[in-house]
Specification:
single chain, binds iron/sulfur cluster, mainly alpha, about 220 residues, about 0% strand, two-stranded antiparallel ribbon, 2 strands
Length: about 220
């Protein structure tokens, strides 16, 4: 494994800190003029900006990823989610046609029941798919999938498949590390703003956060 350049690590850390603080300030400003709807819009804007940054990075010839539509070995991993992300997803599901919404909520309840029976760290070993994974292998909440899913990429699908089969996900440096750290920093900033503004939001693991918003 290549050694990390301490200066590069330090610069990245400073960038992450700065971006988190800038995002927190932007979120507090947005709240003061537009309240919670403004914060939820900001969350979507940051997702979209992150998508653009990732797409631009992937367009460069030195950057290869194996990810493709319908590939989903990674959709059996636990997904951490920030509070505003959970609220945007819950609102999006709430606006679906009733039959589609009912199906998603049934799958969510079923998956939560399965997760209750296992140690959270053993989910991959138990092959419990994300409740939002569609039968055709695509993501059922793709337009509002969380930052962790937007930024997760791999350069080798065979490694992912092997990770799924063995229950040991490969530790792999991702080709879009900078964009991933940016999305995480922005989520940290949004989360800090919610704490500062005393906005109670569901956060944590994807299913549990959505269960609290949609099923409780
Ligand atoms: S991270 Fe791996 S399993 Fe997930 S879409 Fe990319 S190649 Fe497929
Ligand atoms: S939200 Fe979508 S992309 Fe993320 S794990 Fe679930 S099905 Fe996969």
């Amino acid at each position: 494994m290549a050694e990390l350049d301490p200066r590069a690590v330090q610069e990245r850390w400073q960038r992450v800190q700065q971006l988190a603080q800038e995002t927190e300030q932007a979120a507090i400003g947005r709240w003061s003029v537009a309240g919670l709807p403004g914060l939820l819009r900001l969350q979507r804007e940051l997702w979209a900006a992150g998508d653009r940054a990732i797409a631009e990075r992937l367009d460069r010839t030195d950057c290869f990823v194996a990810c493709d539509r319908g590939c989903n070995w990674c959709c059996y991993l636990n997904v951490p989610i920030a509070g505003l992300e959970a609220q945007v997803i819950a609102d999006w599901i709430g606006a679906l046609p009733m039959a589609q919404r009912r199906l998603i909520l049934e799958r969510l309840a079923q998956t939560l029941g399965q997760l209750e029976l296992i140690n959270p760290g053993d989910r991959l070993g138990h092959k419990i798919p994300c409740a939002f994974l569609e039968p055709d292998g695509t993501c059922g909440i793709y337009p509002v999938r969380p930052a962790a899913c937007r930024s997760h990429h791999s350069t080798c699908v065979a490694d992912c498949q092997q990770g799924w089969e063995t229950g040991q996900w490969p530790a792999r440096s991702m080709p879009i590390d900078t964009q991933t750290f940016d999305l995480e920093a922005q989520n940290t900033g949004l989360q800090a703003a919610c704490v500062a503004l005393a906005i109670p939001l569901a956060t944590g693991e994807l299913h549990r956060a959505l269960g609290r918003l949609l099923l409780d």
